[in-house]
Design a protein that fits this description.
109 residues; mainly beta; Jelly Rolls; five-stranded antiparallel sheet; four-stranded antiparallel sheet; 9 strands; globular
């Protein structure tokens, strides 16, 4: 078994996001070929947004650091470190109010 040091990975990607023109950095932490689950660690610099996009299917967001807002056309969820939310099956975006790291988990069908 391989242990992933998520806190160290989060810190590294926050640094990369801050230095990046896009203000974000991401890596797939789980999701081998043929897997039914994919998990992606995403770091966002403060004030940056993952633009509006369609929900990938059954998915959840876990806020690991900072504060983000998951927004749809008719609702929003403010997440702080330790908060988890199911991603609604509709178009949405994610905005970082502070430098933040989230873990996106997506069920692959």
């Amino acid at each position: 078994m391989e242990i992933l040091r998520v806190d160290e990975l989060a810190a590294s990607h926050l640094e990369s996001a801050a230095a990046s023109e896009s203000g974000r950095s991401a890596t797939t932490v789980y999701g081998r070929s043929g897997a039914r689950l994919r998990q992606t660690l995403i770091a966002l610099d403060a004030g940056r947004t993952l633009g509006e996009h369609q929900s990938p299917g059954d998915a959840s967001l876990l806020c690991l650091r900072g504060e983000v807002v998951l927004r749809t056309a008719d609702a929003e969820a403010e997440l702080h470190a330790g908060d988890l939310v199911a991603v609604p099956p509709q178009r949405h975006d994610v905005h970082a109010r502070t430098a933040a790291v989230i873990l996106l988990s997506v069920a692959l069908h």
